[in-house]
C-alpha cells in the first residue's frame, strides 16, 4: 500500500484540508441554482435543491415553485443537509485530532466511519433528486443536471476518499509520527557482504 500517502509529519493537515474542500463544494451545491438547467437557449428552466423555476421564451422573470411542497423534495434536501452537517462535524473533529497530540489517533477511525455515513446520506439525496424530479416536475425542452449538482457529487467523492484514508491512517501511526528509524540499504559488497 502507499502508506496512505500521509506517512510524514508535514502531511498531516492534508486530510482536514480535503474535508474543508468538500465543505466548500457542499456549500456551493446547497446554495447553487444549477442543479437542473435548460441545455441550450432559450433558457426556460433552472432548479436548485430547494426550488424549480421556469419562464417563457420571451419572459425575463422566473416563476419559482418550492420543492419543499413535495415529500421527495424534503427528503432529498434533508438527507443532503444532514450529510453536510455531519461533514462539518467531521472537519472539526479532524482538526482536533491532528492538533492535540494525545487524541490524534484515538478517534481517527471513528471520523472515517462518520465520513462513510456522510457519503451515504449525500448519495441518497443525490439519487432521490433527479429520479423524482424528472418523474414529477414537467420539463420543457432539453434539460441537464448541471454544475451545482456536479459539485454535490464532487463533495461526495472527496468524502468517500477521505473516509478510506481516515480508516487506514491508524495502521501507519508510527510512520506518520516519525517513530520508525529509516532503513538504509547498501549496494556495495565490501560494506555489506551478507546482502549478496
UniProtKB/TrEMBL annotation:
GO biological process: apoptotic process; cell-cell adhesion
Membrane-topology annotation of the record: Multi-pass membrane protein
Transmembrane annotation, as ranges: 12-32, 77-98, 110-131, 151-172
InterPro entries reported in the protein's UniProt record: P53_induced (IPR015664), PMP22/EMP/MP20/Claudin (IPR004031)
GO cellular component labels: cytoplasm; desmosome; plasma membrane
Name of the protein this chain belongs to: p53 apoptosis effector related to PMP-22
Gene source species: Eudromia elegans
Record carries keyword Kinase: no
Similarity section: Belongs to the TMEM47 family.
Gene name of this polypeptide: Perp_0
Amino acid at each position: 500500500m502507499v502508506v496512505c500517502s500521509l506517512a510524514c509529519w508535514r502531511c498531516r493537515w492534508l486530510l482536514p484540508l480535503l474535508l474543508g474542500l468538500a465543505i466548500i463544494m457542499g456549500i456551493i451545491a446547497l446554495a447553487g441554482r444549477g442543479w437542473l438547467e435548460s441545455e441550450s437557449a432559450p433558457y426556460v428552466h433552472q432548479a436548485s435543491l430547494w426550488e424549480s423555476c421556469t419562464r417563457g421564451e420571451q419572459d425575463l422573470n422566473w416563476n419559482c415553485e418550492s420543492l419543499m411542497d413535495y415529500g421527495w423534495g424534503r427528503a432529498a434536501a434533508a438527507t443532503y443537509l444532514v450529510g453536510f452537517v455531519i461533514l462539518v462535524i467531521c472537519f472539526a473533529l479532524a482538526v482536533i485530532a491532528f492538533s492535540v497530540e494525545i487524541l490524534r489517533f484515538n478517534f481517527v477511525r471513528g471520523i472515517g466511519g462518520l465520513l462513510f455515513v456522510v457519503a451515504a446520506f449525500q448519495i441518497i439525496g443525490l439519487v432521490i433528486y433527479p429520479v423524482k424530479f424528472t418523474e414529477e416536475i414537467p420539463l420543457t425542452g432539453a434539460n441537464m443536471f448541471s454544475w451545482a449538482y456536479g459539485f454535490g457529487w464532487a463533495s461526495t467523492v472527496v468524502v468517500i476518499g477521505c473516509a478510506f484514508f481516515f480508516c487506514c491512517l491508524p495502521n501507519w501511526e508510527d510512520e506518520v509520527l516519525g517513530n520508525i528509524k529509516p532503513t538504509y540499504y547498501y549496494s556495495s559488497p565490501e560494506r555489506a557482504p551478507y546482502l549478496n
